[in-house]
């Protein structure tokens, strides 16, 4: 594998909250244009892992590299890395006092130091990209969950990130709205965006992921292409987990 | 003169006499202020159109007028139309009116927060409207109004100092007299301030205990502007 | 009606007190804002000593009667600092501002704390520094949340401003008393003054409430406090 292809490297990341050891040494490489999906029972550190990558939660141990530069222990330069590592949250976290357009503009103006006109253009382009330019002048409270989540994707895209972290982006949405968000994510993946996605949407994982990482108890338990994990008899733990979900759904 | 001699042998004894007057002012005002507040709130909420608008106007006027002006009206103004109060009585009347008007607002808010079903249920048991208000609505409302009423009580402690402007020698007045006589202003007023802080802090603690005592399990505390 | 004529005669003088009263109130509000907002930020985001200092300040200035504060600063602290030449008006305005800061800081603190944690997380995830996030995400929301509570400070300061009479500030109540002394007409003058205070009080509140409506954002909870 050509080392230049690796855009993000996560190396032996550990994190504890008090006595609770949430991450117990997680490592993986992400190639440019790749979509990695993280699956696993809740409380196994998937969301914490994403937050350790952009240092919203600094890891106790281990290192993270973006394009060959160390993200961990980067001091004030972390604000530069965070522009390059976009993040989309379960509850959107749109800025409640700003319209959809201004939500996308804000960091362009205040972080990238762009001019007003340029930021405006760029924000509109990103909103168009996620199919929501008609709602540009609406406030978050006036948007459906699906619309809000698409705005938050546009907000992350506007920073021209090398990679976007999706932290259960559809868990707060109805099935109907889930679909519209997954569509957008699928298109991004096809366009070559590098993405790390924590989700419970197996359909999405199987059709879009280049690789699935099945996490359990703070560790990556199984790792491979969707096809491999689902059909190779050597891998059983993820299949067990999916079985448990399915039987619960049938109840 | 030695500072400690001044503080312990001159200032503090004078302040203690003033404190007694301050406590008398509060003791004479607070119960009537509460009663007035309840009366005005109930009148405003459940009275007929006339009573309701009288109560509303009362609150409007009192809240709109600075307390010090109200005290001047009571003490310097009323004699012109043949009503003369002593300075102490004028102060107490002013405090009752002011305290009552603000209390009424908190109690009315609490009355409105009691669910309609409570009145319906009480009347379904054969209570008259008045009985229902007295034995079902008010006991609930007053509990919810406690945080607001305690705020007002603490305000009363502080604005009782305005009685000095009508020549009542209460705590601040006593401090002022000593300060002027000995030209020791900063020390005197700082210690007067400390006495007020002690009063306010003790009251706050007492109010917290009271609140937990009268709390009814499962009923939420009405949100009030959290300003002491 | 002699009384009415006298009242009309003196009315312009009475109105001249309004300027001083409004001056006291506005400087109290503005000074309170300028001091209270950083204090609130210090109490939410500051280190332990900063939070402690602000806490003590608030406890002190909210616990003392305005009359005692005025006496303390007018007779004691300012002359003690060699500032005995300051006019009563300036001292009154400063004391109202210092006291206003204590109250306002608590309004702002509550507002800042009521902004959801996710707002800060989202801002930081976009690469904003903590300071930028506070300035462009947290404060614009907090200020809107705080405004209704902040508006209610206006009548409080207006009421307190009348106590500046006690240190000789020539404001509305002082002028009222002077007219009463000179004309020996008491009740009509007092009522006229009360009327002016009432108009200032509710008129000012109306202006502030209009401002609240103007900066309201759909679905964004004003009136929460």
List the helices and strands and how they pair.
The complex is a heterotrimer of chains A (251), B (228) and C (225).
Chain A: E1 6-17, E2 20-31, E3 35-39, H1 46-53, E4 61-66, E5 69-70, H2 78-84, E6 85-88, H3 100-110, H4 116-129, H5 145-157, E7 163-167, H6 175-190, E8 195-198, H7 202-208, E9 211-216, E10 219-224, H8 226-231, H9 237-250
Parallel strand pairs in A: 3-8, 3-9, 6-7, 7-8
Antiparallel strand pairs in A: 1-2, 1-4, 4-5, 9-10
Chain B: H1 3-46, H2 49-64, H3 67-77, H4 87-113, H5 116-124, H6 129-159, H7 171-182, H8 185-214
Helix pairs in contact in B: 1-2, 1-4, 1-6, 1-7, 1-8, 2-4, 3-4, 4-6, 5-6, 6-8, 7-8
Chain C: H1 2-45, H2 48-63, H3 66-80, H4 88-114, H5 117-125, H6 130-151, H7 153-163, H8 172-183, H9 187-214
Helix pairs in contact in C: 1-2, 1-4, 1-7, 1-8, 1-9, 2-4, 3-4, 4-6, 4-7, 5-6, 6-9, 8-9
Offer a concise description of the structure.
The complex is a heterotrimer of chains A (251), B (228) and C (225). Chain A has 251 residues and is α/β, with parallel strands linked by helices.
Order of helices and strands of chain C: HHHHHHHHH
Helix content of chain A: 25-40%
**How confident overall, as mean pLDDT of chain C?**
91
Instruction: Let me know the average pLDDT of chain A.
Output: 92
Structural class of chain A: alpha/beta
Strand percentage of chain C lies at under 5%
Unreliable stretches of chain A (pLDDT < 50, length at least 5) are none
Distance between the termini of chain C: 49 Å
Largest interface chains and counts = B-C, 44 and 46 residues
Question: How would you describe the shape of chain C?
Answer: flat
Any idea what the CATH architecture of chain A is?
A: 3-Layer(aba) Sandwich
Number of self-contained structural domains of chain C:
1
Rg of chain A is 18 Å
- Overall structural domain count of chain A: 1
What does the largest sheet of chain C look like? none
Keywords, separated by commas or semicolons:
heterotrimer, A: 251 residues, alpha/beta, Rossmann fold, six-stranded mixed β-sheet, four-stranded antiparallel β-sheet, 9 helices, 25% strand, C: 225 residues, mainly alpha, MetI-like fold, flat
Structure overview:
The complex is a heterotrimer of chains A (251), B (228) and C (225). Chain A is α/β, with parallel strands linked by helices and 251 residues long. Chain A has 9 helices and 10 strands. In chain A, α3 packs parallel to α5, α4 crosses α5 and α5 runs parallel beside α6. The N and C termini of chain A lie far apart (45 Å). Chain B has 228 residues and is an all-alpha fold. Chain B has a single domain, classed as MetI-like fold, CATH 1.10.3720. Helix content of chain B is 79%, strand content 0%. Chain B contains 8 helices and no strands. In chain B, α1 packs antiparallel against α2, α1 packs antiparallel against α6 and α4 packs across α6. The two termini of chain B are 38 Å apart. In chain B, 43% of the residues are buried. The model of chain C has no long low-confidence stretch (mean pLDDT 91). Chain C has a single domain, classed as Orthogonal Bundle (MetI-like fold), CATH 1.10.3720.10. The longest helix of chain C is centred in the N-terminal third of the chain and has 44 residues. At the A-C interface, α2, α3 and α5 of A face α5 and α6 of C.
């Amino acid at each position: 594998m050509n080392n230049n292809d690796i855009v993000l490297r996560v190396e032996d990341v550990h994190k504890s909250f008090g006595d609770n050891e949430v991450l117990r040494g997680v490592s993986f490489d992400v190639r440019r244009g790749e979509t990695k999906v993280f699956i696993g029972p809740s409380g196994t550190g998937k969301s914490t892992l994403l937050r350790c990558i952009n240092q919203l939660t600094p890891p106790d141990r281990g290192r993270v590299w973006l394009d060959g530069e160390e993200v961990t222990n980067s001091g004030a330069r972390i604000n530069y890395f965070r522009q390059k590592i976009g993040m989309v949250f379960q509850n959107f976290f749109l800025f409640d006092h700003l319209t959809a357009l201004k939500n996308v503009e804000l960091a362009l103006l205040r972080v990238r130091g762009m001019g007003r006109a340029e930021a405006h253009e760029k924000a509109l382009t990103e909103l168009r990209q996620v199919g929501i330019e008609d709602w540009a002048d609406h406030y978050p409270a006036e948007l459906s969950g699906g619309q809000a989540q698409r705005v938050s994707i546009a907000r992350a895209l506007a920073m021209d990130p090398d990679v976007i972290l999706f932290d259960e982006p559809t868990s707060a949405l109805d099935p109907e709205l889930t679909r519209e968000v997954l569509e957008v994510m699928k298109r991004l993946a096809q366009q070559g965006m590098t993405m790390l996605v924590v989700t419970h949407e197996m359909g999405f994982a199987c059709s879009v992921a280049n690789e699935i990482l099945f996490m359990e108890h703070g560790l990556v338990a199984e790792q491979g292409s969707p096809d491999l994990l689902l059909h190779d008899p050597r891998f059983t733990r993820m299949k067990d987990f999916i079985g448990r979900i399915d039987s619960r759904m049938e109840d | 003169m030695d500072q400690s001699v001044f503080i312990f042998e001159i200032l503090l004894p004078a302040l203690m006499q003033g404190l007694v007057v301050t406590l008398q002012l509060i003791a004479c005002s607070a119960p009537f202020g509460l009663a007035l507040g309840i009366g005005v709130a109930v009148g405003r909420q459940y009275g007929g159109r006339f009573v309701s608008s009288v109560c509303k106007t009362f609150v409007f006027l009192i809240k709109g007028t600075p307390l010090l002006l109200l005290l001047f009206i009571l003490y310097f103004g009323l004699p012109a139309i043949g009503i003369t109060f002593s300075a102490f009585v004028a102060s107490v009347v002013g405090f009752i009116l002011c305290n009552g008007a603000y209390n009424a607002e908190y109690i009315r808010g609490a009355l409105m927060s009691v669910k309609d079903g409570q009145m319906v249920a009480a009347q379904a048991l054969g209570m008259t409207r008045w009985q229902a208000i007295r034995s079902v609505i008010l006991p609930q409302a007053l509990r919810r109004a406690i945080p607001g009423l305690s705020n007002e009580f603490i305000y009363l402690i502080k604005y009782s100092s305005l009685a000095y402007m009508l020549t009542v020698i209460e705590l601040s007045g006593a401090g002022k007299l000593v300060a002027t006589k000995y030209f020791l202003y900063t020390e005197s007023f700082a210690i007067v301030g400390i006495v007020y802080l002690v009063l306010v802090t003790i009251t706050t603690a007492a109010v917290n205990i009271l609140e937990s005592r009268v709390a009814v399990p499962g009923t939420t505390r009405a949100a009030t502007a959290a300003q002491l | 009606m002699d009384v009415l004529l006298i009242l009309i005669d003196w009315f312009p003088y009475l109105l001249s007190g309004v300027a001083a009263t409004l001056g006291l109130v506005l400087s109290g509000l503005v000074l309170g804002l300028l001091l209270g907002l950083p204090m609130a930020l210090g109490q939410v985001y500051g280190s332990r000593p900063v939070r402690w200092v602000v806490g003590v300040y608030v406890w002190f200035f909210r616990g003392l009667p305005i009359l005692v504060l005025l006496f303390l600063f007018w007779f004691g602290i300012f002359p003690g600092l060699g500032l005995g030449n300051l006019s009563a008006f300036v001292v009154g305005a400063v004391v109202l501002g210092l006291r206003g800061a204590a109250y306002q800081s608590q309004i702002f603190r509550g507002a800042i704390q009521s902004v959801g944690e996710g707002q800060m997380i989202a801002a930081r995830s976009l690469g904003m520094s903590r300071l930028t996030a506070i300035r462009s995400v947290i404060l614009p929301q907090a200020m809107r949340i705080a405004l209704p509570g902040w508006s209610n400070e206006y009548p409080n300061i207006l009421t307190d401003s009348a106590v500046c009479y006690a240190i000789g500030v020539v404001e509305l109540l002082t002028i009222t008393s002077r007219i009463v002394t000179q004309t020996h007409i008491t009740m009509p003058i007092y009522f006229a003054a009360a009327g002016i205070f009432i108009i200032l009080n509710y008129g000012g509140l109306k202006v502030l409430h209009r401002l609240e409506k103007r900066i309201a954002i759909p679905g964004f909870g004003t009136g929460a406090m």
